[in-house]
Here is the input.
Amino acid sequence: MPLEFSAGAIIFRREKGKTLYLLLKYSYDDYSHWDYVKGIIGDTVKGEKAQEAAMREAEEEAGITGLKFVQGFRHKIEYFFRKKEDGKTYHKTLTLFLAETKQKKIKLSFEHADYKWLEYKEALKQLTYDNAKESLKKANDFLKKKK
Here is the structure.
């Protein structure tokens, strides 16, 4: 079974005492889902590290530069998916970081149809997959403990 390694970031910003999380709407053909900035490690940069990939994806997918990573948070998710291009089932390992931005304006890539900045409860409802919801819970709890 082919393996795929990706990295991404649960990106947040603070506004008027509130923590807002960035969610992107991915659209493929007739299918769409809400998730985080993420992509394949080393997809365009050979020898890339996971955190570097997350930073690159934030810029490519949302136009965000200058992310400040929250030290001590690193969450891994593993799952299986089928690629439409080759029909094969892949085992994916996704490493998610937690990162803060001051940027409010988002510049979406061609991969996305929409974005939202949402408070925790709304973001939890908006996310499509259970593993993404679990990641947000862990990230939000981590931020609460850091205060």
